[in-house]
Amino acid sequence: MDRKIGVYICHCGSNIAGTVDVGAVIDFARSLPSVAVARDYKYMCSDPGQELIRQDINQLGLNRVVVASCSPQMHEPTFRRVCESAGLNKYLFQMANIREHCSWVTEDRAAATEKAKALVSAAVRRIYYQEPLETKEVPVNPNTLVVGGGIAGIQAALEIAASGHKVYLVEREPSIGGHMIQLDKTFPTLDCSACILTPKMSDVGSHPNIELMTYSEVVDVSGYMGNFTVKVKKKARYVDEDKCTGCGRCQELCPAKVSNEFDVGLSQRTAIYIPFAQAVPNKAVIDAQHCRYLEKVKEGKDVCRLCQRGVEKKGIPGCEAEAIDFEQTDKFIEIEVGNIIVATGYDTFDPSPIYQYGYGRFDNVVTALEFERMINASGPTGGKVLLKDGSEPKTVGIIHCVGSRDTNYHEYCSQVCCMYSMKLSHLIREHIPGAKAYEFYIDLRAVGKGFEEFYNRALDEGTVFIRGRPSDVIRQNGRLVIQAEDTLADCQRIIPVDMVVLSAALQPKADAEEVARLFSLSRSADGFFLEKHPKLDPVATMTAGIYVVGCCQAPKDIPSSVAQASAAAARVLAMISAGTIEIEAAIAAIDEELCSGCRICATLCPYKAISFDEEKEVSRLNEALCKGCGTCVAACPSGAITGKHFTSEQIMAEIDGILV
Amino acid sequence: MGISAYLMIKMGKIDGGDGQRDAIRELEAMPEVATVEPVSGQYDLVVEATVDVPARARVIAKEIQAKKWVERVHVLKVEPAEPNPFLDEVCSLPGGECVRWCMQCGMCSASCPNVNQMDYSPRKIIAMIRAGRRYDVLTSNTMWTCASCYLCTARCPKDVKITELMHSLERLAARHSLRCEGVSTPAMYKAFINSIKNNGRVFEMGMMIRFYLTTNPLSAFRMLPVALQLLLHRRLAIMPKRIKGVEQIKAIVQRAQALGGER
Amino acid sequence: MRYYSYYPGCCEEGTAVGYGMSTQAISHALGLGLVELEDWNCCGATPYGSADLLESLGIAARNLALAEKARFTVPDEKDIPEGKARLDLVTCCSCCYNTLNRAISLLGQYPELKSQVNECLAAAGLEYKGRVRVRHLFEVIYNDIGLDFIEANVVSPLTELKVASYYGCQMVRPEPGFDNPNNPQSLDRLVASLGAEPVPYPLKDRCCGGSLIIPELDLTLGLIHQLLESAATNGAQCIITVCPLCQTNLDAYQSKVNSKFKTSYNLPILFFSQLIGLALAIAPESLGLSTNIVSANQMLDQISMRKSYAMQGAENG
Q1: Domains in chain C: boundaries
Q2: Contact B110 A407 (CB under 8 A)
Q3: pLDDT mean over B71-88
């Protein structure tokens, strides 16, 4: 068929035209074979620009369109839509990236123009061999998986469930609540954290549309947007959730003592335990690593089981609901969902490597989270801030930016520490009348709504702010002493305190790498999960159908986590509402006649999209799973697999175009 | 060299003539004065002078104050004209660009063992470099009081190499012929280098003698007991040991100087 | 036997003569072949770096160039082949260690600087190729010989001797090297391997003032006083060092500290090599202990008393 190619060169304002001589490229384009028309325009992606293409297709009968402009990541969908609206199959369109690959990477005009010409020539030669292709539509599974039961996960789950669709909420710990449930009061309103969170937690626990799977982990994810198959491991609780009433008798009976992670090591719990008073679900769980029975039963011994048996001698019964079940095993459940929201949260930085701050060496040097647990009424000290010797501190020094803003540890700012530090200084004065609080900061970041007012309140209440990062915490005459340069007053400050609070950084969770691999997520340089676009798309990721929300994407405060979770929920609901998604047509195609049945392709496919037909002894492609990566195409020794829209002919033509 | 000083002048009584016009002409005739403008308010005139070093502004102010018709002179501000030549100079040194990364947190100063004897703390020195205060920085005693312990460098959260910077400032001071009165460290360093150039190695006794002679010979008496002890314990060589390659050292040094050094 | 090029540093001929003696004395026992770099010159240390960058790098690089060229024969081996001992230049002085490594780092980072320095070296008929590594004697013993070997070869364990390890500044900083720059532990481990008791104290890696002792005597005496106090109040019976400047400051000026601050410190300040030598039962004279100003005799008496008690105990069964 006669090829009639239209070539359109975009100026992109001065982004392209400032470096590339567009006129020269147009002239060059006109000289290429089968080019019926070559135009340039300031902004091809604009309405008038798009109209140019539409008009030419209609009036000149173009059957192929090349646009030389920005990256296909930006506007390939735009121009493909234009072609379709003019009746041209969207696969008869090709983009040449003369911006990100050309004008934006050099200031050499001559070199840029030559490269632009080469790229246009490549696109024109390639498009000659492009054929129309049809996309397929597949239905979107209306179920959603939310991974992580902190505030972000809870918010996302509730919003999606409110629409009537089903949500699976998978949480690794025995209860949802994340870090927020550990906090005492939240800034800037000083709302009690548990008071505002527990209603939501309770909602999640009783919502008809939310299937809550606690003490569970995602172990495998396969599939594609709209159709994920997820394998969840439900760890054995050794407690029957249907029977357990949450009475807590078992906790009182258990003799084992374990460091309580909920209290950040400040208290101990038992091996069978209910994580905290407001746990959802409010059911006991046995920590198999520390349960005496479960440890010894491997050797064939039957010890303890006091939780189950009670103390017969004293007539104290064990679990009256008979909920304890030592026969339980881990269960693996497969669920099918259309979208996945990852809300796995953060870890706190361990300040031990910062030797000079004395964490782990001196008594009464604590992290902010440890302090939150102390000051929390339901915490290990009943809400009292206590020194190691049991007395209350009269003076507390709070050091900002511990592990943050530091090329030696984490370069980024953890966003919330300035505010929570101010909150802690307020709470100290509230709990201990007459106490003095010092805050050692570098910059004060009080950017949110009501934050500056909260800072004014802290100043008014008498918190002393010293602008200087302390160099050392030393022990002198039995007291802790903080040394810092007061950079505003230009002098050295030596401040004796009773207690030092380290505002430690928020950092990616320790297993962030495995989680990233599991969900095909990228990570940014700071280790947090990477969003699709830092400005315009902070919830989606490069993997369609998978979203990241909350602190696993970047440190943020509670309102921002909630907002991000709502945003992701909206995206998911939009997907579910649309009902179907388009499968890209640029995938592989197996010619069964040529297939020799060697199965090399199946072993190489990273998406498990190729299966083997035992009867016919040929490989078969699952078009929905295929992502068009081309591995099988390159590997097939018989040449039986073609990559649609990336045929050898097309690629060779493209290379020819560049070389000539 | 691009430092602007702004001086406010209050005029007193002028005998005869077109008072203000003559005053302006007289001021404009001064070599460093760039412009003179009348103002209203507390003062009558504002003078913009372009000086080499901020200290010159005070000298000019004194000269103007000495004039009969001047009642009061006020130095409003002295600031480097943009661009900032001193900051550019520091940044052009190998490793000097790190000065831009400082966030003024003060960790270096708090860690410094000798900060209490310094005119300006290390953090302040960086702030002053960024403000272009070449004269004040290079005449301070800060870098000469640095013990090169590297505690600042190890702890700096922005990877600023402060100790290296201190040494660069010592070299810049020499380049600009600016000295700090009251420190004898430069003299010790000179004696040290002198010994190397003559012997290839440091002859400690010779270096000490030269140091005390060029600074304060009387202070040598404080050291005599220590020197005696070292001598008695065979730790003080009486004669210098010259390496075979002293000429090589001289050739290297000469070549470096011919290449303009790289202070 | 492991062979290395050896850079003693200027102090070894003067104030640190004991360091040189003890290093030589222990090297054979430890299997260290230290072959002195021929005609080495002063590294320039802090003073030269403050005067002129190119000159200072030039004279430092002369040593590096000589080390790269060094060929030496050893009694029972042929010439050291390419890539072996010749490319490790070992120094016992922390200041020289820092200065030479700083030169390597600057010349590696700034190629224009390297070519300028090579122009200067060419005037002396030398060239710096960038292949030599400069290591600290202690780090070589710690990593290449290993504490296990030392522990196995200890003849007189220094039982109950409380030793404070003074790391000083320039061996552990500025680059994170072989030990934790915030909390170095390597010397303390050496002390333990010799059978002695390492004394933890907070100022173990703080500054002694270095060469500022000469122009800023009072300032530096204050720093030395803090260090002695910190070690003494934590129970140290002696202090070991890895740098001649540190040793001289803590040792030769201890009496000045006492008179200025009305204290009565009497802490022997040993080079770490002297302590190793004592544990290897090498005679104190060979270790240059008589050059230490604060006498180590009391300490030695205690060690030999304990040794004889131990031997008696063993005899009596």
Answers
A1: 2-138, 147-316
A2: no
A3: 77
- All domains of chain B, ordered by start, with CATH? 3-80 (3.30.70.920), 85-175 (1.10.1060.10), 194-258 (no CATH)
CB A367 within 8 A of CB A359: yes
Q: Is the pLDDT of residue A219 over 80?
A: yes
Q: Quickly state the pLDDT bin for A132 (edges 50, 70, 90).
A: very high
Among C41, C53, C181, the residue with its CB nearest the CB of B243 is: C41
Q: What is the pLDDT of residue C78?
A: 55
- C-alpha of A117 from chain center: 41
Residue A456 CA to residue A433 CA, distance in Å, equals 20
Structural contact between residues C34 and C90, judged by C-beta atoms closer than 8 angstroms: yes
Contact A66, A96 (CB under 8 A): yes
Nearest CA in chain B to A484: B110
Report the predicted TM-score, pTM, of the whole model to 2 decimal places: 0.83
Q: Is A363 on the interface with B (CB under 8 A)?
A: no
CB contact under 8 Å between B171 and C53, yes or no, is yes
Question: A137-235+330-345+509-583 belongs to which CATH class?
Answer: alpha beta
pLDDT of residue C313: 66
C175 or A290: whose pLDDT is higher?
A290
Give residue A398's identity as a one-letter amino acid code. Answer: I
**Contact residues, chain B, for A405 at CB < 8 Å:** 103, 105, 157
Please check whether residue A305 is in contact with residue A293, taking contact to mean a CB–CB distance below 8 angstroms: yes
The DSSP line for A77-99 is: HHHHHHHHHTT--GGGEEEEE-I
Instruction: Tell whether C53 lies on the interface with B, counting CB pairs under 8 A.
Output: yes
Distance of alpha carbon B121 from alpha carbon B106, whole angstroms: 9
CB-nearest to B110 from A401, A408, A470 is: A470
pLDDT digits (tens, 9 = 90+) for B108-122: 999 999 999 999 999
* Tokens linked to B2: 């691009």
Angle at A69 between CA A65 and CA A74, to 5 degrees: 100
Please state, in angstroms and rounded to a whole number, the distance separating the CA atoms of residues B242 and B198. 8
Chain centroid to Cα B182, Å, comes to: 13
The tokens of B96 are what?
């000097």
Tokens of A61: 């009968």
A355/chain C closest Cα distance in angstroms? 6
Nearest C-alpha in C relative to B118: C219
pLDDT in tens, C96-140: 999 999 999 999 999 999 999 999 999 999 999 998 999 999 999
Task: Tell me whether residues C119 and B193 touch, CB distance under 8 A.
Answer: no
Q: What is the mean pLDDT of residues A187-209?
A: 96
Arch. (CATH architecture) of A587-643: 2-Layer Sandwich (3.30)
d(CA C12, CA C19): 7
Residues of A within 8 A of C205 (CB-CB) are none
* A contact residues 390-409, partner B, Cβ 8 Å cutoff: 401, 405-408
CB contact A522 to C (< 8 Å): no
Q: What is the pLDDT of residue A626?
A: 85
Is B78 strand, coil or helix? strand
Q: Give the fold, CATH level 3, of C2-138.
A: Glutathione S-transferase Yfyf (Class Pi); Chain A, domain 2 (1.20.1050)
Domain A347-507 classification at class level: alpha beta
A255: Cβ contacts below 8 Å, ≥ 6 apart: A270, A292, A304, A306
List the one residue out of C225, C231, C230 whose CA is nearest residue C255. C225
> Percent of chain A having pLDDT more than 70?
100
Task: State how far residue A361 is from chain C, nearest Cα, in angstroms.
Answer: 11
Domain A5-135 has CATH 3.40.50: yes
Q: Does C47 touch chain B (CB under 8 A)?
A: yes
CATH code of the region C147-316: 3.40.50.11810
Q: Three-state SS for B69?
A: coil
Are C48 and B148 inside 8 Å of each other by CB? no
